[in-house]
Queue: 4 jobs
Job 1
Amino acid sequence: MKLILVAVALAALVAAPWIVTDPFYVHLMIMVLMWTVLGASWNVVGGFAGQVSFGHSAFLGTGAYTTMILYLNMGIAPWYGIVLGGLVAAVIALPIGLICFRLRGPYFALSTLAVAEIIRLVALNWESLTNGPVGLLITTLPPVTLAGTALDWESKTPFYYIIAVLAVGALVATSLLARSRLGAYLLAVRDDIDSAEAIGINTVQVRVLALALSAFLAGVGGGFYAMYLRYIDPDAVFSIPLSVEMVFIPVVGGLTTVMGPFIGAVFLVSLGETFRTHFLTGHLIFYGLFMMVAIRYMPEGIWGRLRLMVANRWGVRNA
Amino acid sequence: MLELKGLTKSFGGLRAVTDLSFTVEKGAIVGLIGPNGSGKTTVFNLVAGFLPPSAGQVLLEGKNLVGLKPYAITRKGVARTFQTVKPFRQLSVMENVTLAAFLRFPMRRHAEAEASRILEKVGLKGKIKLPANDLTLVDQKRLEIARALATGPKLLLLDEPMGGLNATEVDLAAHLINDICADGVTIIWVEHVLRAIMNTSHRVIVINYGAKVADGTPREVVENPDVIAAYLGKRAKPHAAD
């Protein structure tokens, strides 16, 4: 049953650009999938490990800048750059984790905010590397021929398939994490750090690993962001609103669930765009209201609530 | 197997534990008692690595534990429970214990088998699927012990395993503690339920204001005038006002 659902979902993912041809809606699907990756990233650290980070744009931005700089300065194609961006973000996450995970709860959350701000300021002022506040721009992407035809970088379809692969990868990674011993340890850390230590879990180490994995996914998402939008500057990719959006997506979708970030991205990205087109001014008010209602009445998230409902019905039938 | 040498802990100006020394032999059940605020839990926190001592040593089989993180001390064979229970609340009873068993059984299948064995021993077999949060206090205390046992300890530190239990439950818990000892686990046990600790312990150590007041068999300890003074206050001297 589950396999069939997954197969149908994958088929729909592959077929979508043939059915939806309006570039605006293709763009919307790309955004949904990009936010799925970013939401899945936050879900690892904020959901599984229960460590609230308000600074995840640090990893997104690191991935974006790595991809851009590698391409512009060294000619390394963005599709390699995206993966390398993820790796650089993961490496940067190690010292950040070792420092910030000495703190707990709100103090950790505040420290992530501070770290993201530090990294933004570094990007803003290290002009020889980042071009400072002017930002970096990709004018042309390297030509690629696939099965004899050149990919058209001016159309959105190639980007759709790239981000689709990345989003599926992020969800598969989450699913593997949920089944692994590391995933189980993270849930222990989420529920009680002292007890986790008392049963022999090196809680700093597992949280740092979670942050590195999370940062990798955020860096990958950021690398794609850079390649797709082709322009980045420090205030765009290291911004607090991006960090906050990365929190909201998995929270609204369903923390610690595999599909939560995708569901959250579908709802929030499409709602955001709808409000933007229908209420030119003040669309953020509606967005904020929706967020408050969702969190108040569905603290386990949309997907989390659906799973609970299915489980309950199933349980009642068997009782 | 455990030796405390001059263990001291100050919080600012307050000395919670002062120059405390004692040894615990392998296979013993040692009761650690004292009035409220006498430093019992602090001693556990120092031994298990949750607090760094200001001075002194904690030796497990001759090796110093001071400076090690709590998880490292657990891996050396010292498990603890918490006075106010700290289960992994959103996880099932089974998962709570399985997580601890991972320390010795990296394969989930083996860890779950070990967890089942221990849950049966502590009397939680029928509740393995419940979220830990839904258990009664008695069962949460049992879960706390089960989780500590699943790490495969040589030394078990029990912090008030009977707090809040009724008389029947206390007897069951005492039985369980004897059982655990019979399996070769050395036990240090902080408790306020004196009847239980006097019946079950081989030896009792009394502390007050963080310092050792008495150390001996349960009978010796209850007859010690210093212990009576620590618990009840000093006997008023006749004509003290003169």
Note: The two ends of chain A are 22 Å apart (CA to CA).
Job 2
Amino acid sequence: MEVAAAKLIGAGLAMVGTIGAGIGIGMLVNGAVQGIARNPDASGDVQTNMILGIAFTEAVAIYCLVVALLILFVG
Amino acid sequence: METPPKKWRYGINRWIILFLVILNIFFVYYVYYPVLPHIQLPAENVSEMPLFGNFYLTNTMVATIIADVILILIAFSVSRAVRSGELIPRGIAGAIEAILEVINNLTESTAGKWAKSIFPFFATITLLVLIVNWMELIPGVDSIGRLEHSDHGYPIEEVIPGSNIYTILSERDAGEHDAHDGGYGLVPFVRVASTDLNFTVALALISVLMTQVIGVRALGATYFTKFINVGGIFKRPVFGVIDFGVGILELVSEFSKLLSFSFRLFGNIFAGSVLLFVIGTLIPVFVQSMFLGLEFFVGLIQAVVFGMLTMVFMAQATQGHGEHHDEEHAEEAAA
């Protein structure tokens, strides 16, 4: 029973790492939207780079998620 | 030449949807209540017998084969539409043409003259991952399969007596059907391929390896000076060593690309399907539809991101370090 409880707590703690990714994506989109508002002609390029940046940032959050899933469902 | 604004009409579609919602509520509360499936990471075997030797056909392999068949059928129908000589493609051919045009424009604006050899990877990966991800939304995937004895299983019941088709009962419906023989779990015949790490790691390996191949084709042996940069160590002592360290970091980042490619796709889609399972059992009526809409977009975005990152890395590999600097200086001089 203690192992099961420790697993749940561990999975929850692993997801704390997503805080950073959330802040990062917020800052990224903030910059991109300001850029588009000042120069709407460049919106295509800005959007492409924004999605790439979000993908990189999100990867960190996904690592946390994968670790949490591994703790929960493996072994 | 103005088209008149469309009149608000009571079509038949909304009545069909209303009927389906009522049917859903009736089914969930009076017939069978959904059961949370046993969630596990590795793919399950479709049959108890191996195909040959020690090789089992897993349910994610079945999903990959189905996606391949769909892609091949689309390819045949598009090629027939192209050969028929009509200038304006219709139906599926038109949709595929629109998608490929967007992908081609994006590749050309990023990769320039190497677009021709990079475009196939971008398009193939995007289309395959897109179809595989969207399979998650089809009813029957993850829910039709064979029964297997398991310790944490549920009791079962024949749907129509004598038909040999069984359904798994939830705790609410179980009632007098107590689990006299341990209960059964479900092994689905088709499970979304992106929820298997083998699929995503294979795609990531193809992507990263072909990035190196395209880099070597574009720059020859000088491509490897990006990783092992000893050229400047003796000429410029301090910055040469820094360049060498940067090269080592580039080498490490190639391997971390593998990790991030495979875990990004796997994590997103696996978490999405777990989310759908849990929501489907918590609130079985209507709410899951919204999450299906969410998963629709997640699948699309992940497919595009996988393809686009492959394309961007390949485009970066075709540009050498020195060449890039020279171009910048030339632009400054021109300005």
Note: DSSP finds nine helices and four strands in chain B.
Job 3
Amino acid sequence: MNPVLLALLNIYLKGVLVYFLLLNAVYMLFVVMSAFGILRHNRWTRYIHTREIFSSPLSKPISIIVPAFNEESGIVESIRSLLALEYPQYEIIVVNDGSTDTTLSQVVKTFGLKPVRRIYRKALKCKLIRGIYASSEYPQLVLVDKVNGGKSDALNAGLNISRYPLFCAIDGDSLLDRDSLLRVVRPFLEDPDRVVAAGGVIRLSNGIVIRPGQTTKLRLPRNSLARFQILEYLRAFLGSRMAMSMLRSMILVSGAFGIFRKDIAIACGGYKLNAIGEDLDLVVRIRRYCYRKKISHRVVFVPDPICWTQGPERWRVLARQRGRWHRGLIQTFHFYGRMAFNPRYGLVGIFAFPFHLVFELLGPIIEILGYFTFVLFIFWNKVNYPFVFLFFMVSIVLGTLLSISSIFLEELSSKRYPRFRDIFILGAYSVLENLYYRPFLSLVRAKAFLDYFRGRNVWGEMEKKGFRKT
Amino acid sequence: MKLYSSLVLVFFLVLVAITLGLFLTLIVRRAIVQYRERKFAARYRKIEGELLKLLGEPGVDGALALADRHAKFPHVLTDVLVNYSRSLWGGEQAKLFAIFNRALRSRFRADLSSRRIVRRLRAARLIGFFVDHSDATVIKDLLQGSPIVRLAAANAIAQSPSTEAVPIIFRAFETDDVENAHAYKNVLFSLKTRAENGIREALKKPLDQKKIEILIEIVGSIPIIALAEDVAAFAEHQDKEVRLRVARALGRLRRPDMLPVLLRLARDKAWEVVAQAVKSLGRLGSPEALDILTQALFSQQWYVRYNAREGLLNMGESGIARLDQVARQNRDRDAADMAAMGLVDAEFKEGS
């Protein structure tokens, strides 16, 4: 055994320990900040009712763009939920991106749509539009049928067809709460000149029960993988994103539910066709554009509008989804890495990019290399087992503490699981996830590097189950 | 290494204690919140029930007694008052005033000038219904506060039925920083025709351009037909943003005598103004605008063509005949497409 190599590996392992403590400390700080942010938001919004926004004659109309590729299981419910939204003026543009299932026929039949010739401005490039459908019964609904070109292409087609100054991109398998638009649009009313994008909370719809178009019962799903993801989403949205918004460092507005100023999005070239994470890519480009043009701007996270979306219930599908998300992050750093540590890009350059680089992008690599080094130490019989056991226990408790803090944030937010039983179940899963769910995700994300540099950037099939109905 | 292990062990034990403590807090908090929500709802129902019994009774004695009984629950009482002040009028609303003055007025005053934003917000919610002339300066301060307070105050003042609210609002609007001006849009709009004199006077003053734009916009949005001439006076303004708003406002006012102004704006050098003027001409529905709308279908700007199409569709049979003519010509394909799609839309609407 080479003593130099051993010393180096020893230093590396100590570095991993420090990194691990720093990572958890930062996330705990985020949780504390988010708690204050959510409490402040709750107090403020208590006195500003959504109906005041609804009755305001100066609320900007919104185009909701729903790209749909093989979404037959959930698209009709999703459109119903959108038709039931409370908002003074909006249009729903469903873009059928060359689906090979019954998505198109289901939507046409259910809503009695007929082909129309609608004029539009081709401000952004997109694949051939085969037809546009509308209905006199649902005048705010437009269905666009186009040749398959991917999600970004479908969103660009929707942007071309849209008529209103704000647009909201949501996934075809998602469901919005009735007042979500009114809530998410609030920053645009408060600060119309500076807010360029706003995002709400994404939560898992697995297990919830819906009546036509709206959630009625909030229940935990039976599937354990979905339960792990619930905790993860709570951590990500209520824990991290809220804090990033407070630090004015948001670089991601989730593609499942985000609202943007159309003029700025078009000025940036719309959605990039080869972007793996089109949502992240768009927000980063918007921010880069604003900084370069010296436009004072804000990207805001609002903690109470909720979009319900289906999470995978099989490990293989989850691995595919998370691999894609991480490849999207890698690509963003590949394309826009120069923004990191660059004061020209304000807080995004000096904080958001370095933070994502160190803790999000490289995290899985550092973690997996740590495991690998540890195995080598076992092989060389150089392990202090009591210390390692203690450290392992510390890592489990720290992970559990973070998750329980996120459940606490959920308690503070507007929508929570109503039963005491659900809190206990989530509490148990907070412990369990550290044993195999999180290491699994680290492995998947580390593998994403290999896939990205090998050029494997396909989306892959997602499994859709639809919503449970009353 | 022993020292390290001991440190980690202590750290571990502390973390376990924090985690368990947090989980326990979570459970206890949930129980307390649910209990409070139940109590709040019960108190709300009780006050609501008593208030409903008071309706129709003469005098405010019952209301004052209600205020005394529930003064210890200002949050619940505030919620009831705000919710019912939207739907009660005249003598019944006087009862709400009596309750407010007896149980909440002093608290409201203190909240209005409080340093805490939450308290100012809470007070702002009540301004609209219980505004008093003596509160004018504090209200102006609220409109200069942070965006959320401005929005709350603006929304609240906008709903005030008081005549005293109008001069307060205009004085605040004219003297406030231009950056805050947009916070007044809702306020001015909600004054409806009560805003007429205020806007007429304000348009004569040398206000900042942004404020002029807001006032013109509001004239069209309400709409205040009597102010058409005052708005038309800005049709020659050097800034296209102002001319654009004049075109939009005149379209909303639909005064036939404003046709020459709109025809002039439809020949403006800025296409944005032309696009808006064309749309407004369509709203006016005057046959004299047919030629200029047809001509606008051949514009190089998509928005001008689109608005011309909308304008012609608004003009009924004669407009549709013009669309038909343009759809059949071959010299400009963009214009033909726009006209053809207008015809499809017309058929679609007719079919439905």
Note: Chain B touches chain A through 51 residues (CB under 8 Å).
Job 4
Amino acid sequence: MELSASSRLLHHPLFAGLPLATVERISLDAHNVAFEPGQVILAEGSPASTLYLLEHGKVALSAHAPGRGHVLVQTLGPGEVLGLSWLFPPYQWRFDAHAVEFVEALAVDGARLRALIEDDPVLGYQVIKRIAPLVVERLQQTRVQLLDLYGSGTNGYGNRPA
Amino acid sequence: MATVLPERALAPSRPGPFTPVVFRVLRRDQEAPDVVTLALQPGPGQPFEFAPGQFNMLTAFGVGEVPISISSSPGRGPLLHTVREVGPVTRALCRAPIGSPIGVRGPFGTDWGINDFAQADAVVVAGGIGLAPLRGAIELLLERVGLPAGPRKVVVLVGARTPDQLIFRSDLETWSSLGAEVAVTVDMGSEGWKGDVGVVTQLVRGAGFDPARSMALVCGPEIMMRFAIQALIERGVLPTSIRLRISLERNMQCGSGICGHCQLGPYILCRGGPVVTYPAASRLLSEAEL
Amino acid sequence: MVIGLDGLDELVKVVLARGFRAVGPVVADGAITLSEIGGASDLPSGWQDNQAPGHYGLTQTGSSRLFDWAVGPQSVKAEVFPPRATIWRAKAPEYTVEEVADASPAVAVIGVRPCDLAALDVLGRALDGGPVQDPTYHRRRRGAFLVTVECTRPASTCFCAAMGTGPGAAQGFDIALTELDGGVAADGSPPDGHAPQYLARAGSQLGRDVLLELPQRPATEEDRVQRVALLARAGSRMGRSVDNSGLPELLARNLANRRWDEVAERCLACGNCTSVCPTCFCSNFEDTTDLNGTVERRRTWASCSDLAYSYVHGGPVRSSIKSRYRQWATHKFSWWWDQFGVSGCVGCGRCITWCPAGIDITEEIAALRASDGVGEP
């Protein structure tokens, strides 16, 4: 049985627990998307206009470095969120993203969600309050990645080889 | 010494604890650009017994001696040691020709204690070469799944810096086919990598184990273990159910509790470690320069 | 029983005749050091020491007393745990390992201080008391004949009384001597024309046998009373003290105390403290090779104050002097208890005297106690 967009939004961790009215309002701007393995979802530098709520499959974020090819910096899976750059200027994707496996997601129109947030402070607050912890969590994870946990080149205490 | 009484007579020397036994290199497998697994053959009539988690002191004659984890499981094939090339001794070991002699002393140290896993979810979190001392434990735990004295399930979570630094990739596939839940992530992926990219702590969050009845084994660089253990505790695993292996790379020299080098706070790691339970080690890991 | 200088001289000759090497205190290079002796005339007659943080000096008083000094820089440690030893040899290409057994003759040490006797017990727990026993230490310790001389004139750096290791000796010796009044009193008043005498007690069968061979007279009640009084006086004149109550826990919880930063500004990490300490046991095991393909594994004394001591690939774990001083002090007074069930310190005071910066461990401990818990958040 096909789930309604509202139900799917409610099922996703980002929006679970929000008042039904809010969810129904957002669902008007949401539609189903699917990507084949290898298919590009976002391209670095292009306008950021969509919030993707991932339901199935795996997405990889990458950047292309000359001489290094595509470097994968993060993978995201079901229950996670792809795309936050639609929320703040310059509304531009910073990284590429492609489907690693078959991906199914709910795509929410970013520009319209942004307008909703501006017009309705109560709804806006509820949404921003959900998004902020995601950003902090991702920042923490990225910092840990930067720490280079595996000690290659250092002894794990930050000392460089003599 | 004519009138010295027998009780005072100096005892004849007996084989010392610092004397290595000569084994021969049977096989050498390249696991990663700087990581090699050496298979060693003991001499005739020299059975070698150990428990997973223990280590040996290996001598590259003419170069020196270092502590290296045993990565095989007891009773299964030749004695395996997985070595990362970081200095002259490990370089000599990684390049030792087939048939060449290697000095072996051991086994030393505390083991993972896999007899304590009855009816628990066994959660293994490994970072980088930390998977090596866990390999024997994983194999034995998998063998015992479903037995009364064995774990309910085995979860193996592995992190590495990049895909080419993952070791035992074929073992990971084998373990998965034997029913273990295996998840792998790298800090940075290359094109063609189809696995996860992100920190190993993420794997802990998403893995299928019941924190209330889990026993965790954690091994990797100290900083990686701190974060992994944090994630385990956030999920509700009891600190007393977490065992970690403090890095051997603390200039261990005698392996016998006498040279003093491997001390970490009150612990003499070659005797009271390197496997310790988390509550005992928690402060020691976060205190700098200890 | 009581012996005189002739008896003491005979003691040295008797142990030599029994096949021991005889080692005792002599004056050399401006200090009381341990060396081979042939008789009582080699012992430091009339010498007194004065010790203070970073200072050691000897004065000659002209008396015939032999033991009016506390300790020299060396302890008995080097006799039972040699600073350098070859453990095994192997030759290319087969590398059959051939052990090098310790073959030194048994040693008799005349003039071991009670603190150093206690130190041997502490050292033995590390080198001989665990699942692995060091063969050289085990052999030499078992073969050693120890003649302890109780302290009657402690130095200002001594604190054996606070550590429970002196000034008297209760066990661990073959013979115990106490230098009774005679010669010149310990407080420095002029010679009274009498030669000193030594109250002697046996602590082992061999000690009893050796004493029987010496010219002697029975001890009187007066001798025994005098010994007790001398030890009581020495005990009350200790130059320093340590409050040991709850000390292991105190140090273990003060790893972040700012005092460590403060002492680090004075400490040179020269390693003198570890060198003169009678209980420090750390060693390096290193392999050397020669052009003929012979490999030797050697063991040499090591010091945790050395930057290379905690080297792991990439750099030392304890880079800062602060971390190394903290390691030494905390191990000695706290973690030693976890590892060996005793304190690592016997109160001999050598680390205070021989520190070129004059760092006083008793002062550091008192400062840590006074600022307990005050540190980084």
Note: Confidence is low (pLDDT under 50) at residues 153-162 of chain A.
